[in-house]
Amino acid sequence: MAVADIAPRAPDPGVIALAVQQSRVLLTEDKDFGQLVYASGTPTADVVLLRYGFKARVDAVRTLLELVQQKGDQLTGAFVVVQPGRARIRPGAGLDET
Description:
alpha/beta
């Protein structure tokens, strides 16, 4: 489900609030969500930031699927950055690190 379909022009904090409310994982290419997650100090949605160029989008999807299969249990409550050859998983701000 795309945010633009249910809440067009929603501000970034509103997008995070909607994802939390609906227990959704937020997939984004917008680096501003990293700042929001760590600066807010409040519970946030699970966020996956994809850092792939336009031509590498097929690789991004493949890598994301592999990440979910291999480390899916580590993604809950996390802020994840996925880029070519690398995935960083960090606990989200304001969430327990258990």
